[in-house]
Amino acid sequence: MTMNQSTKNMSSISAQQTPEQSAELQAVLAHPSPLKEFWLAFSKNKGAVAGLCFMSLILFLALFAPWVAPYDPIEQYRNHFLQPPVWAGGTSQFLLGTDELGRDILSRLIHGARLSLLVGFVSVLLALIPGVTLGLIAAFTGRVVDSAVMRAMDIVMALPALLLAVAIIAILGPGLVNAMIAIALVSLPAYVRLTRASAMAELNRDYVTATRLSGAGTLRLMFVTVLPNCMAPLIVHATMSFSAAILEIAALGFLGLGVQPPLPEWGTMLASARDYIERAWWVVTLPGLTILLSVLAINLMGDGLRDALDPKLKTAS
């Protein structure tokens, strides 16, 4: 068949279509791609877009901290102890002032973003992978295993999160790695319960039954058939857990159990500056404000992801 013949056939087919069929075809062709549809739903939430812009800036500063930061974060300038920010009577040499040891606060905040984002990402990952696995096992296996897993998660959830994290670090010892492990263990029950509930809601669907009748094994049912349909609430919860992890590592750093000096971390900066609250407000205010804005931005992004991924909310809109 030549090109001219195929063109004539296509034109004849289009000519045979009714106006209703043509309108349906145009609607199908005009339907946006999944990625574009997601962005359109996400961008309707202006707070989520603002949070995304702020976190993109923080991520950029964290990735390129050695080149963006004006000074080394642990370098001390002994002639500039507790120098105020430039708008409060300081000099342009230190835009956000210096701390009690003469270290540039702006440089420490930029390098501290690397540690805070790293701890948040790794903690979420360490809780997400075993949490999803245990949740799927609890949903697919018998009542005995399900009860054992869920009762263990109930015991963990019965303890205050920060107190449990402090107890874990007291056993493992203070440090960055142990703090990430402690935060992940504290966050684990929420992932298990959410995955189990989402998977059990999918087990009686027709596509799961058809896949099971076609001879698929349990592992394929878990990770190939059911899990992709449970990812929307997990993504939203992981985003919220990211902000919670930043708060928890800041709290542990404030207590002296997280990142150890002289590494710059926002919570550790607050802990070292608490003796200078009255006479050097910027030493405490700037790290605290950075934590506040970062957590707020991530929570706003989580709201936008929920609006974009939840089919009920998309139908309502």
Task: Explain the overall architecture.
- With 317 residues, this protein is an all-alpha fold.
- The chain has a single domain (72-316), classed as Orthogonal Bundle (MetI-like fold), CATH 1.10.3720.10.
- The protein is 74% helix and 0% strand.
- The chain is built from 15 helices and no strands.
- It has helices at 3-16, 19-30, 34-43, 46-63, 65-68, 105-140, 143-158, 161-172, 176-202, 206-213, 218-226, 231-254, 266-273, 281-309, 311-316.
- Helix 4 packs across helix 6 (105-140), helix 4 (46-63) crosses helix 14 (281-309) and helix 10 (206-213) runs antiparallel to helix 11 (218-226).
- Residues 6-15 have low confidence and may be disordered.
What structural class do helix, strand and pairing data support? mainly alpha
CATH topological fold name: MetI-like fold
Multimerization status: single chain
End-to-end distance, in Å? 48 Å
CATH class: Mainly Alpha
Count of separate DSSP helical elements = 15
**CATH architecture field:** Orthogonal Bundle
Helix fraction? over 70%
Fourth-level CATH superfamily = MetI-like
Overall number of domains:
1
Largest sheet: none
Alpha-carbon Rg, integer? 26 Å
Task: Report strand %.
Answer: under 5%
Mean pLDDT: 84
Order of helices and strands: HHHHHHHHHHHHHHH
DSSP, total strands:
0
Q: Please tell me what the overall shape is.
A: globular
Enumerate the spans where pLDDT stays under 50 for 5 or more consecutive residues: 6-15
